[in-house]
Amino acid sequence: MQTSESKIIPYRHDGDFYFTYGVKAFKEKRFDRAEKWMLKALDVHPKNALYLSQLSVLYTEIGQYHRANDQLQKVIDLHGEDYADCYYLLANNYAHLGLFYEAKKYAEKYLEHHEDGEFKGEVQELLTMLNQLSADEDAEDDLELDDMDEIIIYQETAFYHLEHEEWDEALEVLEEMMTLYPEYLPAKHEYAYALFRSGDQEEAITLEEAWLDQDFNNLHSRLNLTYFYYTTGKNKEFQELLPSLNNVYPTYEPQKLKLAITLARVGEYEAALNRFKLINRHQVSNYMSYFYWYSKVLDKNNFHETSKKIWKQGIQKHPVLDSFR
């Protein structure tokens, strides 16, 4: 006699079934669930290049660049040069990790195997940025490794005062930092910004104009001066400098954020919204300014409900933000 159990036919979903659910969860930013579905898909087809690549994109999105690179390296090991886009993704991830030599190596590999590929423009911009960062890094090599812990403390202290718009306190910390570590270039641009906001506008403009003359490709100077010119009514200078920001796509999230905020400050709300969409929220959630300006930009673009949602998230993470409304 045949039992009912013997009539049960085992059924296992194929990889595409799991992968589809993983992509859906990813688009909904439910990253833990997305990872589970994608790993299930890879259990079925562990060598599938699409599954591996998408999992790497998920890890990049949540800032787990080493894990992302592991997946991309598997694709290259399994499929060789058939998936040259992996070189671009590897380069981008290594840049985020501050491993500029590796980033440059994979960016050049992409152009070698995919000279006219879809990401040609992005790779060329990345290489330009890497060359600039390498130059900056050479200038900072004079800093003793033992000094880095102290620099981080200064950075965090200045960051706190800048985020809370405590300009006098920020200036004091940054002045001391510039005296002790003159090779550390970002401090002087934060100093100029705090100087401007504290009321010494002409001095701030003079400093940044001098630095821009030394290096026109310096993003810090261009961002500061764009905001300075707009605020002080120097319309001719503002109009000349603003277009130079349009083709700049920084790799690091804080730089992406500063660019988006600058565009918002000067009333370029649509362009600012496009830039905010490129920012990985998980990597800038410690910035009150992210929630403040993203909410404002969304509201200016008539996304009122989403604006309220972002503002609420900001208040939950930074209760003091409510006093800045």
TrEMBL record:
Keywords: Repeat, TPR repeat. TPR repeats lie at residues 15-48, 49-82. The keyword Plastid does not apply. It comes from the Bacteria. InterPro entries: CellSynth/LPSAsmb/PSIAsmb, TPR-like_helical_dom_sf, TPR_rpt. This is Tetratricopeptide repeat protein.
